[in-house]
Amino acid sequence: MCLYLRSWRSENEELDIGCDALLFRVVRTGLLCSGRGCRCYAQANNPLANMRALNFHDYYIGEYTGMDEDGNQFWLRYAQPFSIGKTNWLMRASLPVNSFPFGMDGDTETGLGDFNILAAYLFDTGKPTLSFGIGPMLNAPTASEDVLGSEKWSGGFANVLFNASSQRFQYGYLLTWMGSFAGEDDRDDVSLAAFQYFTLYQLGGGWYLRSTPVWAYNFENDTYSIPLGLGVGKVIPTEKVVMNVFVEPQVSIADDGGTWPDWQIFAGLNFQFKM
After folding, report:
1. Ramachandran area for residue 125 (φ above 0: left; ψ -120 to 50: alpha; else beta)
2. Domains of the chain by range and CATH?
3. Mean pLDDT, the chain, whole residue set
4. Could you give the 3-state DSSP secondary structure of residue 212?
5. Mean pLDDT confidence for 24-49
6. Angle at Cα 74 formed by Cα 267 and Cα 13, nearest 5°?
7. Alpha carbon of 166 to those of 25, 90, 107, 146, 169: distances in Å?
8. How far apart are CA 194 and CA 226, in angstroms?
9. Distance (Å, whole) CA 48 – CA 120
10. What are phi and psi of 33, to 5 degrees?
11. How far is it, in rounded angstroms, from Cα 155 to Cα 18?
12. Residue 63 to residue 242: CA distance in whole angstroms
């Protein structure tokens, strides 16, 4: 979920975790841009809005906590609303391209990572500016190289809240957990939780400040990472598409075990398609 980070275990195995990242970056129907101070600016980072979205996200990892090496993780994400009977859902699919160091020599391997998909049931909160969703999540071992993925099938859940009742300040969270149920026996089992908070402050004219780091805990080896971030973004509405471009440096303030990002730069370009 999002945004995503990566956790290295003692065998230098890699596992994608939902962050950010599980960020759909879409605009709620009925709140489209219509002028100065419009609600599309407040809703542009709502991870549960009822719109299609195509996102390009990149994490440049400047240094890891367990090794003096850098890496990169690029994410292609697509979100699509759908209905089952009278219920409303949102599907989000993500595929990473990883470039990670491995081994004692710090050699770099680049290729596809594990595919992730989730479906969130959207509750009717009675308030168009308050979104709440929960649903299943699946992680498939699609990595092109062993060191770029977990080699495990994992399932779990994602729970998201986003409050855009204020046009100036929006907030929310994404909570995920997934555990492995099949895969290669010689790889560690997966039991990983992640919590991402969203805080966004509108500056006017589509500009905004943002903080969306992912806190993660690996139950298999009792390691964790707690970063903080502060960045800036710009929402650019057009007749049919709302674009959202941002950059957010993040730094670890507490971590233990494993090899987590010591500091990284999260950047993205989101396309939100009006229906």
Report:
1. alpha
2. 2-273 (2.40.160.40)
3. 86
4. coil
5. 56
6. 125
7. 18, 24, 48, 46, 5
8. 10
9. 8
10. -70, 135
11. 12
12. 33
| Strand spans (E) along the chain | 2-8, 14-20, 52-64, 71-84, 87-102, 107-112, 115-122, 130-140, 152-163, 169-183, 191-204, 207-211, 214-218, 223-229, 231-237, 241-256, 261-273
In contact, 95 and 76? CB cutoff 8 Å: yes
Amino acid at 15: L
**How many Cα atoms occupy the beta-carbon half-sphere of 4 within 13 Å?**
31
Q: Indicate whether 231 pLDDT > 90.
A: yes
- The Cα 200–Cα 204 span in angstroms is 12
Q: What are the tokens at 121?
A: 């049931």
pTM over 0.90: no
| Structural tokens at position 33 | 């841009």
What is the per-residue pLDDT for 247? 98
Query: In this model, does residue 193 exceed pLDDT 90?
Result: yes
